[in-house]
From TrEMBL:
Keyword Transcription regulation: yes
GO MF, one annotated term: DNA binding
Species this chain originates from: Pseudomonas bharatica CSV86
One Pfam match: TetR_N
InterPro entries in alphabetical order: DNA-bd_HTH_TetR-type_CS (IPR023772), Homeodomain-like_sf (IPR009057), HTH_TetR (IPR001647), Rv0078-like_C (IPR049484)
Protein name per its UniProtKB record: TetR/AcrR family transcriptional regulator
UniProtKB keywords: DNA-binding, Transcription, Transcription regulation
């Protein structure tokens, strides 16, 4: 048997991630069959197990990929804002809007919570903490506030994603966010 190169291994991993992401988005984690996934990818179950351990490991990798993309988008928005405080506000609002995106809604906000349980996105919390520190919000620990706001946003996003009328829930969550953050403004 020929030895696979590092590039081959990376391509196999990327293919499995891409196919799983599409399948999880289309059918949901519970309905996604491993046989269908590997057939679509043109790979074996052995390749899937080698790279991800099992279906749950594959979901965790897909969620990590989506989380990283979300964080990049949020960081770009906050980087473009005129002030760190405006960047912090826009980041919070954009996170809630992302709860309406079908792929994020299904994979990250529905399936991942059920299958993987509660997760902390340390990268996102660190970015929020940095914006809070740059905003010169006084009288509160930036780490504590970042975790508090992140937890509130995450729960609101789960609530938006679960609802029948997610657009109305987004509007309600946005109004609650504005009320929550109003007294924090350094201006």
């Amino acid at each position: 048997m020929a030895r696979r190169t590092r590039a081959d291994m990376e391509q196999t991993r990327a293919t499995l991630l891409a196919v799983a992401r599409q399948l999880f988005s289309e059918t949901g984690y519970a309905e996604a069959s491993m046989d269908d996934l590997t057939a679509r990818a043109g790979l074996t179950r052995g390749a899937l197990y080698h790279h991800f351990g099992d279906k749950q490991g594959l979901l965790a990798a897909v969620v990590a990929q989506i989380d990283a993309e979300m964080d990049e988008r949020l960081k770009a928005l906050s980087d473009q804002a005129p002030t760190p405080w405006d960047g912090f506000l826009e980041r919070c609002r954009a996170y809630l809007r992302m709860a309406l995106e079908p792929e994020i809604q299904r994979i990250v906000l529905r399936d991942a919570r059920v299958v993987l349980g509660a997760r902390e996105d340390e990268r996102c919390i660190a970015s929020m903490r940095e914006l809070i520190e740059q905003s010169a919000i006084v009288g509160v620990d930036a780490e504590a506030l970042a975790r508090m706001v992140h937890g509130s946003l995450t729960e609101a996003a789960f609530w938006i994603a679960r609802g029948e009328d997610d657009a109305a829930r987004l509007e309600q969550a946005g109004a609650a966010l504005d009320l929550l953050l109003r007294n924090l403004s350094p201006e």
